[in-house]
Recover the amino acids of this structure.
């Protein structure tokens, strides 16, 4: 199991507390948001502090699938298949939340819930790739064959993660770039100010801990299911 029962409870309590602190910081600690020209931004921009951490967490979940898939092919151990499955299931939830929060933000910013621009399109493709991963696992009944096929898919399908992350850096996009530079000369506006950066950091940590908590519960449930099937 991922964590012992006592540590699991403590970890869950810490995660829950940090999530509440992160939410409080978004709605009560952040100052009014302004654009680069000094214009006061709509309160809908606060969803950015959910959207970005959730996106990073979904990438982390699929990276875990990638590593666990490699380990499963190398060692053929059931535990790695369980880790890959559990991370994929949690990751798909986060990937859906990325699309949902992104669409809400798009509506407030552009007036449309969806436009076919690089970041939104590659994010949808990422979600569909791992939905296909889950469907593949459901379609194959023989455990060893399912584990091998899923591992290959988990490795190859990971290409959708850097593709999604780099999309607004490689192609012109309506999606805002907050950090780094693009291949065509653009650069991110960044977040200036300790308050904004601290709020974002706390939210990223909170959602990563949430992912680890959910991953732990999912792994434990899958282990218990396997043990019941063997009885």
């Amino acid at each position: 199991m991922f964590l012992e029962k006592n540590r699991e409870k403590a970890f869950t309590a810490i995660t829950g507390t940090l999530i509440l602190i992160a939410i409080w910081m978004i709605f009560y600690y952040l100052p009014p948001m302004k654009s680069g020209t000094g214009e006061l931004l709509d309160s809908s921009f606060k969803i950015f502090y959910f959207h970005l951490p959730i996106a990073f967490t979904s990438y982390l979940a699929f990276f875990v699938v990638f590593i666990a898939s490699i380990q499963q092919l190398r060692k053929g151990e059931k535990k790695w298949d369980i880790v890959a499955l559990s991370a994929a299931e949690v990751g798909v939830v986060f990937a859906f939340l990325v699309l949902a929060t992104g669409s809400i933000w798009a509506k407030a910013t552009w007036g449309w819930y969806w436009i076919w621009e690089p970041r939104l399109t590659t994010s949808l493709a990422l979600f569909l790739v791992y939905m296909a991963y889950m469907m593949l696992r459901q379609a194959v009944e023989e455990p060893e064959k399912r584990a091998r096929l899923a591992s290959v898919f988990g490795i190859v399908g990971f290409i959708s993660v850097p593709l999604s992350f780099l999309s607004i850096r490689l192609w012109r996009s309506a999606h805002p770039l907050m950090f780094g530079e693009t291949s065509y000369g653009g650069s991110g506006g960044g977040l200036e100010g300790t308050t904004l950066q601290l709020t974002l950091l706390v939210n990223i940590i909170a959602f990563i801990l949430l992912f680890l908590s959910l991953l732990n519960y999912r792994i434990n449930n899958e282990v218990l299911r396997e043990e019941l099937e063997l009885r």
User: Anything to note?
Assistant: The mean pLDDT is 85. Residues 5-230 form one domain.
